[in-house]
Amino acid sequence: MNPDEEEKNQPAQESDEDQVTDIQQTVESEPEEAEEPETPPSPSEQFKAKSDDDPVTWTASDYIHLEKNGLWYLIFALVVIGLITLDIFVIRAYTFSALVIVMAIALIVYSRRPPRTMQYALSGQQGLYVGEKLYSFADFKAFGLIQDGEHHSIMLIPTKRFSPGVSVYFPDEVGEKIVDILGARLPMRPLKLDAIDLIVRQLRL
User: Fold this and answer.
1) Residues 25, 26, 28, 31: what is their CA dihedral angle, to the nearest 10 degrees?
2) Domain CATH number, residue 149
3) N or C terminus of the chain: which is more exposed, having fewer CB within 10 Å?
4) Between these two residues, 45 and 161, which has the higher pLDDT value?
């Protein structure tokens, strides 16, 4: 090959190498896109991801609030005064009077607390979510339905004797779905309001 031909081919080769180098520098200089932080899934989304069945979700108040009129407060004050009078003249244990006063104040404060709107989710695989707290089916031996006037609620009966039951209200449109899911995992028992529940509702507590 002639020296002249070698000189002509050399610039062409150098030009190709420069183009490759420029492309590599361009790729390396491109900034990587920052990954957006993942939002933690809600309880209902966790159910959809982990369970095979279709979960049911709803919102309801944690209890039924009943308005109290002036007559209610008058009767309540008479009951408190009567208990204190009984203590002064009969029982004569002044700690009882102090306990009555403390309980009366606590009851007034509690009765004036507005109900909270809670988020509920029920899945046949995991259990019942009340807010962020999970109640597993393994902790309960049965369930029942309670009708309180126009309101409906379910109660989960615990397996342990002195453990409290779990009672939640639900709207009519999800009632059938709730009963189907619970009935497939727990036996259903007939429930009704006992004497204490009836008294509490009559007193609008």
Assistant:
1) 150
2) 2.30.29
3) N
4) 161
Alpha carbon 87 to chain centroid distance? 43
pLDDT of 184 > 70? The answer is: yes
Q: Does residue 33 or residue 187 have the better pLDDT? A: 187
Match 């709207």 to its residue by tokens. 171
- Measured in residues, the chain has a length of 205
Does 91 fall in a domain? yes
Determine the Cα–Cα distance for residues 98 and 114; give it in Å rounded to an integer. 27
- The alpha carbon torsion through 105, 110, 114, 118 (nearest 10 deg) reads 160
Question: Which residues constitute the domain of residue 151?
Answer: 53-61+68-194
Beta bridge partners of 118: 60
Predicted confidence band of residue 35 (pLDDT cuts 50, 70, 90): low
Q: Residue 2: inside a domain, yes or no?
A: no
Residue 121 lies in a domain: yes
Between CA 177 and CA 57 the distance in angstroms is 10
pTM above 0.70, yes or no: no
Distance CA 139, CA 124 (A): 14
Contact (CB, 8 A) for 116 and 62: yes
